[in-house]
Specification:
The chain is built from 13 helices and 13 strands. The chain is of the alpha/beta class and about 375 residues long. The radius of gyration is 22 Å and the shape is elongated.
Length: about 375
């Protein structure tokens, strides 16, 4: 039914121009939008250096990847995501590379005319917070850490699924992720995500209160979606603490300013910000741990805890809900933690060099496909 819907949507509201789906024998990249260009860019540029021809398809007409100029890259805007999925479901290619998970699970299907599907992991987090079967139907996955590889192998055995090629790649967006400002602030950055994997509804207001009572300066930066989904709670926080001179409520689109003014981050245990703060800004991180509802996440099928626990114990701490009352003193103990190269190398492959490695691996996969 969804396939028919996408077909009708594409025919009626199709992308401008004659967008074809036949790229037989070629390597095709698919991007959902410009947010993923920071992951694709280092890989694509390395492929160009290697004179490897590719096709770059996007569902976002503002995707910076569409404007790349090279004799080795052909680009196409496919239309919105529904129209793009219709094209991809009948794609003819030697290999398709994407950051989109859950291939062949919901709407995005494997095309019988594409020989190999490769997933580039675009985040350093473990696979626990992904929806179930996020990677099961790919032929290869370019992983960012050893824990991802271990957990994907575990799920393959548990589900008796076809083994994938699992590569030690890294997280390519760190190749181009550079701090834009000096970072020597003295505030605590409280940055919860939203939804059922966030501590915001459970203890967000309590944490702010405890930190302020403890004499800390606080920058509260909720996820933009929270101002819609958690409107009442955020309004309550504004009314309760908005006049406190030690609290700054940050609604800026970009987070660099908040990070530069902070000395430590408090976030959710599933947040990719843990890695960004520790690896790039070299600042300690404290994460709030609580039991997620199943919600269809891979965590419910995994026996071992997410590897971020080990990282947090090295660069900060993990705080359970029952210990929120002590959050201020815990912050005081963690503020002096330092992040070194040994810690980074233990928790991610090829930091600052993943684009080159990914390109080499993609070329290797391409040569191995019959």
């Amino acid at each position: 039914i969804k396939g028919l819907f996408y077909k009708i949507s594409y025919l009626v509201f199709g992308a401008k121009g004659n967008i074809r789906s036949d790229f037989t024998g070629q390597i095709v990249f698919f991007s959902e939008g410009n947010a993923y260009w920071s992951t694709f860019e280092p890989v694509v540029l390395e492929l160009i250096k290697n004179r490897q021809k590719i096709v770059y398809l996007s569902a976002d007409e503002k995707d910076e990847g569409l404007s790349i100029t090279s004799e080795y890259v052909v680009t196409h805007y496919l239309g919105n995501i529904r129209q793009a999925i219709y094209v991809l479901n009948q794609l003819k290619a030697k290999m398709c590379v994407m950051t989109t998970p859950q291939l062949d699970v919901i709407a995005l299907k494997r095309s019988k005319n594409t020989k190999h599907y490769c997933h580039i992991v675009h985040s350093p987090i473990d696979i626990h917070p992904y929806k179930k079967f996020a990677f099961d139907y790919f032929d290869s996955v370019l992983c960012s850490s050893e824990s991802q590889i271990d957990n994907l192998k575990f799920l393959e055995e548990k589900r008796n699924s076809i083994p994938k090629q699992l590569f030690r790649t890294g997280c390519a967006y760190y190749d181009v992720f550079l701090p834009e400002t000096e970072s020597n602030g003295d505030s605590i950055l409280l940055a919860p995500t939203w939804g059922d994997k966030s501590f915001l509804q459970l203890c967000g207001k309590e944490i702010i209160g405890n930190l302020l009572i403890g004499g800390h300066k606080v920058i509260f930066r909720p996820h933009p979606q929270s101002w819609i989904s958690d409107k009442e709670l955020l309004n309550d926080i504004v009314v309760s603490y908005g006049e406190n001179p030690n609290l700054l409520i940050d609604k800026e689109t970009r987070g660099e300013s908040a990070i530069s003014q902070s000395k430590l981050l408090i976030c959710d245990i599933s947040s990719g910000m843990t890695f960004d703060m520790a690896f790039v800004y070299k600042k300690p991180v404290v994460a709030i741990r609580f039991d997620w509802k199943d919600g269809g996440y891979e965590s419910s099928n995994l026996d071992q805890e997410t590897a971020v626990i080990g990282l947090l114990k090295a660069v900060g701490d993990v705080v359970n809900l029952e210990d929120i009352k002590d959050i201020s003193s815990i912050i005081d103990k963690c503020s002096s933690r330092e992040v070194n190269k040994e810690i980074i190398d233990k928790h991610i492959f090829n930091f600052k060099n993943a684009g080159k490695i990914a390109a080499e691996q993609i070329i290797s996969i391409d040569k191995s496909i019959n």
